[in-house]
Design goal:
With 481 residues, the chain is mostly helical. The chain is built from 15 helices and six strands. A two-stranded antiparallel ribbon has the order 1-2. Strands 3-4 form a two-stranded antiparallel sheet. A two-stranded antiparallel ribbon has the order 5-6.
């Protein structure tokens, strides 16, 4: 269909759905922990700005949580529909890991989510804080199991192949495979940074629009502290992750660096800043590089050398162009995050962080940078693993179901239409909520289903329902209608 094989269409379909899905859990992880911190600050200080911010971001969390659940449902089905050979071969390992995620994280979140969303006026402060903490913990446990499964596909351990199927023989080795600790820490920090950038961009936008109050300033301050402290830590974690990848997936590192062949003995590997990789001719075009710096960064040695792409057969190399540029997008955005965090520290000294318009514009433009960096990082990781679905054990071409191209193309088209429509509307609604800005919490109003109100069903999306004023539709800070 349109020149694509069933394998290529199945890969595009999975890449499309996971690209949508990964954004929502990342924000959910960051926002859940942020809400917990806000509630702790409210209970300790009783400053109304923390309470107002909690309820403001709770609405965004509710909508995002709902979209995350819906967007992730179809991915489980794709293992059976498009990747049945993989499920049959490796399902004894990956199946239980995904089931553990449901039995621990999902049940934990489901058990306390209702209290968190609707229990502010119904339960005591300690219990409500506990519920918020359990939801935040549940998001991190969910990420743990998902990344354990994905990391095992990157660096498989603890299995035997019996009767043509992978059988787990050591669950600790399966879960705590060589790449798991680095990937879990790297992804969790990425979720926190992406959320901090979103919160900071919201505050900066409101300040630029003249909506200057304690709540908005608190948002910006907390976001920039997170950025200034955690972004450099992420760079350090990324370095350790790179060393681990160099050891276990050298072809991926060679593709990330666009390194085709070794230089003469004694010359360290250069750092390629810009290039157009040509897989057919096995070389880079329009190369801009810094001598020896690549070896210093990757091997921590001035004369350091890394594997070259020509060390591997053509059929064992990933798509160099995608991996090369996705990695540079991720790193480039990470550098900008560090610079923005340090800029905020400099402006704090003179008390200008809330009024420096160039800084506020930069913070606003960086609002989605964390999410783009996450997507770029996942493209680097997943495309860099190719042509393997289980690295070194099972090729992606062996994992696909025996489908013709036409039905896979048809379902891909449906996914594109539905996802863009549904999640486009959901994202638009989230942006409207953010544009409205934090307002004083009206805790004296009857809660849905409480005394003096008509009982109604409570879904996560219900926590975000409110009327929008005309000012909101025009993009200006408005009052609650």
């Amino acid at each position: 269909m349109f020149g694509f094989t069933a394998l290529e269409l199945a890969r595009i379909q999975f890449a499309f759905t996971i690209s949508f899905h990964i954004i929502f859990p990342a924000i959910t992880i960051g926002l859940a922990s942020y809400l917990f911190v806000l509630e702790v600050c409210w209970l300790r200080t009783r400053q109304e700005r923390y309470r107002d911010l909690y309820h403001f971001w709770l609405k965004v969390f509710a909508v995002n949580f709902g979209m995350g659940v819906v967007s992730g449902l179809v991915m489980s089905y794709q293992f059976g529909t498009n990747w049945s050979a993989f499920s049959e071969f490796a399902g004894s390992v990956t199946g239980p890991l995904l089931a553990y995620e449901v039995l621990t994280a999902f049940f934990l979140e489901a058990g306390f989510l209702g209290v968190m969303l609707f229990g502010w006026n119904r339960v005591g402060p300690a219990l409500h804080l506990f519920a918020t903490g359990m939801v935040a913990l549940g998001t991190l446990i969910s990420a743990t199991w998902i990344l354990a499964a994905n990391s095992w596909m990157q660096t498989p351990q603890g299995y035997d192949i019996v009767g043509g199927r992978m059988i787990p023989v050591d669950w600790l080795a399966v879960i705590f495979n060589p790449s798991f600790p680095y990937r879990l820490l790297h992804m969790s920090i990425a979720a926190f940074l992406a959320t901090a950038l979103l919160v900071g961009a919201s505050a900066a936008w409101h300040l630029l629009k003249g909506n200057d109050n304690k709540s908005v300033r608190t948002m910006l301050s907390m976001a920039m502290w997170m950025l200034a402290i955690v972004a450099p830590i992420q760079a350090l974690v990324g370095d350790f992750h790179g060393l681990n990848t160099l050891k276990h997936q050298p072809a991926k590192i060679a593709a990330m660096e666009g390194h085709w062949e070794h230089l003469p003995q004694g010359e360290g590997t250069p750092l390629v800043l810009f290039a157009l990789p040509d897989m057919e001719q096995e070389r880079n075009r329009l190369t801009v590089e810094i001598p020896r710096l690549g070896g210093l960064i990757l091997a921590h040695d001035w004369n350091g050398r890394i594997p070259a792409l020509k060390d591997f057969p053509r059929e064992d190399r990933p798509n160099v162009g995608i991996v090369f540029w996705a990695f540079r997008i991720m790193v480039g955005l990470g550098v900008l995050m560090i610079l923005l965090g340090f800029w905020s520290l400099w402006l704090r000294r003179g008390g200008r962080m809330y009024s420096h318009r160039a800084f506020l514009h930069a913070a606003t433009y960086m609002g989605g940078a964390g999410l783009v960096a996450i997507l770029a990082g996942w493209f680097t990781t997943e495309v860099g693993r190719q042509p393997w679905v289980v690295y070194g054990v099972m090729r992606t071409s062996e994992a696909v179901s025996a489908h013709a191209a036409e039905p896979v193309a048809f379902t891909l088209g449906l996914f594109i239409i539905v996802y863009v429509s549904v999640f486009g509307i959901g994202t638009g609604y989230v942006l409207r909520l953010i544009r409205k800005g934090p307002v004083p919490f009206e805790g004296s109003k009857p809660t849905p289903g409480g005394p003096g109100s008509t009982r109604q069903q409570m879904r996560p999306i219900s926590a975000a329902q409110e009327h929008m004023s005309v000012d909101d539709l025009d993009g200006q800070p408005g009052e609650r209608s």
